[in-house]
Amino acid sequence: MALKLYNSLERKKVTFEPIHKGQVGMYVCGPTVYSDVHLGNIRTFVSFDVIYRYLMHLGYKVRYVRNITDVGHLEGDADSNAEDKISQRARLEQLEPMEIVQHYMNGFHNMMHRFNALDPDIEPRATGHIIEQIEMVQDILDNGFAYIENGSVYFDTVKFQKEKKVYGQLSGRVIDELMTETRDDLKNQSEKRHPSDFAIWIKASPTHLMRWKSPWSIGFPGWHLECSVMSTKYLGEYFDIHGGGNDLKFPHHENEIAQNIGSCGVAPAKYWLHTNMLLMHGKKMSKSDGNSITPYELFTGDSPHVSKGYSPMVLRFFMLQAHYRSTLDISDEALQAAEKGYKKLMEANKVLQGLSFDTYASAKTETDEAILKLMQETTDGMDDDFNTAIAIGKLHELAGYINKLANKQLASSQISESTLQNLKTFYQSFIQDVFGLRNESEQNAEDDKTLDGLMQLMITMRQKARADKDWATSDLIRDALAELKIQVKDGKDGSTWSKV
Question: What is the DSSP letter of 430?
């Protein structure tokens, strides 16, 4: 079965055919780093992490580009007196904007590593590409698809649609609809020739913190522009996959397409992939309604919405239980079920890797055929638009065969050695390499072993200090460990330690 994916541009599943054989260029819109990354974003990035992993599993050489928005993020087209979210946070905390960016970018990276997401191959930042963004604005102006008003530059959607007839194709929105809408989120409407026009360069007020010189004004680029520039710079004018959350389809991705065609004459991507929403109790998450939870609250269980804490791998497994284009409803009951499912897969793989028999079937058996069929169906699930839900279901069915072999409900004479070896490689590869799931019980045991080794070293150093009557060093070690809530007890048979 060939890999099929749902192309939002065509609104149907299509067979994936890369532009260049054996190679894939993929761009995913990254976070705006002015606050902690929320669960909805994490779901999107985990989904594309699995897509990235599976494409490599299939043998493709993938260049995965995911940007960092550190210029600031304006909803709609703010006027020159408005302030982006990074600048707002910087003023509030009396810090430089880049301090805000660094802090939340570090937090984002740390969170994605906790979810075992691979780093992208390139992670460009918007502030590092201001020159290229100014150049693209000029190209759009030169091609007649933008106009200048009071130092700001606006994309001319009416002229673009009249000539190219593609604006609204991705989102299904049309300019006639936009004309009749109340656009309270868009400022400076008097400067625009049409309500659907959008800013690609914004003139900054004298107090605006993030500002650069341009031929039109001292200002800053429009939000949509940065992705057009960075995807083109690192993947070329036409690449394979552009991804992001469903909420970015309009206006962000729609405007990206317009900008790319307006500047270089071609739409940026062949395939557009969009993830769906993460819900809570069947509703969109909302802090004001109290219907929300943060990743850290899920880890610690410090929330009225959960009865206990859940590990990052359980949460990752929970997210993969639903197809990336489906809504996913988070609840304590669903997380408890996910925890059981995760542990079942981890235990099945541990048992499988330890299986070995003295005798095997000499010819292919019904068990062989059933196992090989389930392995193929697991792959078919992923080939069907990266359907992790189907693939996980098939791995659970395979776990049934693994446990029967381990419990001798199935004799070793009912499976061939080659099938068992194939299953070992396949099962572990899917769990670890494709789904990106770590066995946390094994990791915790390894961490405990490391900690014990370090503590034995500290105890030895403290004992030597005491023997040398170096009470200052002895007390320093004891007090430092006490700060870490580790207690050292001295007895006749030596010293022991424990967590307080």
Answer: I
- Report the distance separating Cα 220 and Cα 263, nearest Å: 18
| Cα–Cα distance, 328 to 337 (Å, whole number) | 14
From its phi and psi, is residue 428 left (phi > 0), alpha (psi between -120 and 50) or beta?
alpha
Residues 213-246 as b or e (16 or more Cβ within 10 Å = b):
ebebbebbbbbbbbbbbbbbebbbeebbbbbbbb
Phi, then psi, of 232 in degrees rounded to 5? -65, -40
* SS3 assignment, position 255: helix
Bond before 120 cis per omega within 30 degrees: no
Q: Beta strand 283-284 with 278-280: parallel, antiparallel or unpaired?
A: antiparallel
Tens digits of residue pLDDT in 412-456: 999 999 999 999 999 999 999 999 999 987 655 555 556 667 777
Put residue 424 in one of left, alpha, beta given phi > 0 → left and psi -120 to 50 → alpha: alpha
SS percent in the chain: helix, strand, coil, step 5: 50, 15, 35
Q: Per-residue pLDDT averaged across 240-268, rounded? A: 97
* Rounded distance between C-alpha atoms, residue 361 and residue 110, angstroms: 48
181 CB burial (10 A radius; 0-12, 13-18, 19+): exposed
Distance CA 435, CA 51 (A): 9
